[in-house]
Amino acid sequence: MIEESKLQVDISIRQSSDAYDVIVIGAGPAGMSAALCAGRAKLKTLLIDKSLPGGEASTAYIVDNFLGFPDGILGVDLASKMEDHLKRVDVEFVCTSVDSIQDSHAKIKQVHTNLGTVYKAVTIILAMGLEPKPLGTLFERQFMGRGVSYYAQGDASWYRGKNVAVVGGGNCACYAADYLSQYVDHLYLIHRSDGLKAVKTLKDRVLANPKIRPIWNSEVEDAFGVDRLEKIKVLNRSTGQYTWLDIKCLFVYVGRIPPKELLTLSIKVDEKGFILTDEYMRTTVPGIYAAGDIREKQIRQIATAVSDGMIAAVNAGRELE
Ligand SMILES: Cc1cc2nc3c(=O)[nH]c(=O)nc-3n(C[C@H](O)[C@H](O)[C@H](O)COP(=O)(O)OP(=O)(O)OC[C@H]3O[C@@H](n4cnc5c(N)ncnc54)[C@H](O)[C@@H]3O)c2cc1C
Question: 29 C-alpha to center of ligand 1: Å?
Answer without folding.
Answer: 7
